[in-house]
């Protein structure tokens, strides 16, 4: 889930509002936000159910159907999708889509998609998956389809992370210089 990314954006926004001592509203400069959201991976989306099938279900079918729990599947998938869509919409609405990076592999299958298998072999497989994910192109949510699509002729995830690191490094240097100058002025 990417709830942590949404919580982080809200915390920064609240911090900006709380620093405003005036009673005037403050403009939040979303274009200055950098959001890196690293997913834990999700199972390959399977089309297990269709509307004709679920239209005939009773309560017990929603709780348990075959080897799955449909109500839990729908809830967890839709919650993550809504947060993805919300963050992508904010980024694109404020023309700062290049400042929102979501890295997630949503094609995991078998034990690679499980959270509780910590064998050496599985951890090594996950490391390899992560390395391959760095080489893939950056993806953005298509707001019409709510599907992540690779950006054509765009940068790779690794290149995007390096770009973010440079921006953050520059920001830190600027803040350190401002702090140094304000400390000298106080003396």
UniProtKB/TrEMBL annotation:
The keyword Aminoacyl-tRNA synthetase does not apply. SUPFAM superfamilies: FabD/lysophospholipase-like. One of its GO terms (biological process) is lipid catabolic process. Keywords: Lipid degradation, Lipid metabolism. One of its GO terms (molecular function) is phospholipase activity. This is Patatin-like protein 3.
């Amino acid at each position: 889930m990417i709830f942590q990314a949404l919580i982080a954006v809200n915390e920064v926004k609240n911090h900006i509002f709380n620093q405003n001592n005036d009673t005037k509203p403050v403009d939040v400069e979303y274009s200055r936000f950098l959001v890196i959201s690293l997913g834990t991976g999700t199972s390959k989306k399977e089309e297990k159910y269709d509307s004709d099938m679920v239209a005939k279900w009773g309560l017990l079918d929603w709780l348990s159907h075959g080897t799955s729990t449909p109500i839990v599947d729908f809830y967890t998938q839709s919650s993550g999708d809504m947060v993805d869509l919300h963050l992508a919409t904010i980024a694109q609405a404020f023309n700062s889509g290049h400042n929102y990076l979501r890295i997630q592999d949503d094609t995991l299958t078998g034990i690679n998609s499980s959270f509780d298998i910590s064998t050496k072999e599985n951890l090594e497989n996950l490391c390899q998956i992560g390395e391959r994910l760095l080489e893939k192109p950056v993806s953005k949510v298509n707001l019409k389809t709510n599907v992540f699509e690779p950006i054509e002729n765009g940068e790779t995830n690794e290149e995007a992370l390096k770009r973010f690191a440079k921006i953050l490094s520059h920001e830190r240097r600027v803040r350190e210089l401002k702090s140094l100058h304000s400390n000298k002025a106080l003396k």
